[in-house]
Amino acid sequence: xxxxxxxxxxxxxxxxxxxxxxxxxxxxxxxxxxxxxxxxxxxxxxxxxxxxxxxxxxxxxxxxxxxxxxxxxxxxxxxxxxxxxxxxxxxxxxxxxxxxxxxxxxxxxxxxxxxxxxxxxxxxxxxxxxxxxxxxxxxxxxxxxxxxxxxxxxxxxxxxxxxxxxxxxxxxxxxxxxxxxxxxxxxxxxxxxxxxxxxx
Length: 200
Prior knowledge:
Layout: E1 14-19, E2 29-32, E3 43-52, E4 57-66, E5 70-77, E6 83-87, E7 94-97, H1 116-129, H2 133-146, H3 150-162, H4 169-180, H5 184-198
Antiparallel strand pairs: 1-2, 1-3, 3-4, 3-7, 4-5, 5-6
């Protein structure tokens, strides 16, 4: 099928690009997948997404290149049913994936500042499906940290600690979060874990 037909099957969450030789992205060939999360395998995918405003979200699709998790274009459908391709940059409303990711990337991909709870809900749902929970938990932890939801951020970063530690900075983040709560012993404990990990 062609990218221009992507709205014909709204149940599919991830499409894989199989041919992109045309200058017009809408003529690219795509295939349906049964993926519930953005996969780690190197490819170009179009993923179900949300255009987020303060009070609502609108369905759309976002193009994501993995494993770098680069997102540059969005596929939108207007009220007349016309499909259009637009850049993700400089938009008034944020575009975020409607499903979590199994590959690492910048957490802001899921951070819609107009309504952060939408991205938080996407990631929490992804945690229930993810095999490698630390990737989803990291995205979630950073958004919760930025939103000042300290106890929830700690819970997210602890998931990383309990699973496969992706970076020693998990300990650094936990130390800082415990400091904000005034829990000095926990802050010292996690700073020591960080120092041990980096060899200080």
